[in-house]
Amino acid sequence: MSPVDLLGVFEHFLLLSLLAVGGAITTAPDMHRYLVTEHGWISDAQFTTSVALAQAAPGPNLLFVAVLGWNLAGLLGAFVTMSGILLPSTLLTLWATRWGQTRRDTRAVRAFTAGMAPLTLGLLVAAGWVLTEPFRMQPAAWLLIAVTVVVMLRTRVSPMWLVALGAVVGGLGYA
To answer: What is the pTM of this model?
Structure first.
């Protein structure tokens, strides 16, 4: 990638950082659009594998951004994507936390906090939809998605068991 391309990636991830309400994974659909669909820098399979690999690894949910950057341009790409996604949100969070702490009992702060829940949920559903795209044509994948949704809504089973189930189904070649 050229320095101009890396600067564009940095700027795009700066903007996505401000939309990452509920975590960076909520911006995965736009990352996919920008990196795969619009520019073709990585393939759909590379994108999905990057997210899955980072999510399976121990550590913060944010690691998939570094893996995407690594696939783009190695160590420099990982630095560019991570600094782009972390810088604005970190600075804004520090400022907003201090501001909100002094005004936590006001109606506006309480309303804002309550209003963020549906927004976060919608962004997570969109991220999940994008991540299932390569597998949607396989019936076993639809069954696995349905089982995951039902189990997550109706039980307190750890999501790690569902990740393990998905690994077994994929390992057997069904999805």
So the answer is: 0.61
